[in-house]
Amino acid sequence: xxxxxxxxxxxxxxxxxxxxxxxxxxxxxxxxxxxxxxxxxxxxxxxxxxxxxxxxxxxxxxxxxxxxxxxxxxxxxxxxxxxxxxxxxxxxxxxxxxxxxxxxxxxxxxxxxxxxxxxxxxxxxxxxxxxxxxxxxxxxxxxxxxxxx
Length: 149
Fold this sequence. Notes:
By secondary structure, the protein is mainly α. The chain is built from seven helices and no strands. It has helices at about 5, 10-20, 35-65, 75-95, 95-110, 115-125, 135-145. The longest helix is centred in the N-terminal third of the chain and has 31 residues, at about 35-65. The chain is rod-shaped. The chain starts with a helix and ends with a helix.
């Protein structure tokens, strides 16, 4: 192989490979003996652990800054459904959504249009659960989902 750490970053795996008498040679270290290979495998294993820790910490920091992680295209239909249900449940129990929904229901009962309700909610300082302004469609969804409680 071209480099030893491409073969394995695990000392136990490399030791088992050597014990099974498989012959191999690292092009980057053609004269390496067993002792050197063990030491370099240990260094490679430590680096793999460090890379994993740095990656995990970087993703956690990115998530804390509000980035969405993952690839939605990779979700199964069951996972998509579970996520949709979770979002709806969170929206229904959100205090600001409940207050905005009560005001929207009162206004709707008096014949106010969805566009006018959205404008009133925005003027009153209400925001969606994600901190956005209300639009007629978001008011419609708010009314539909809050009635499901």
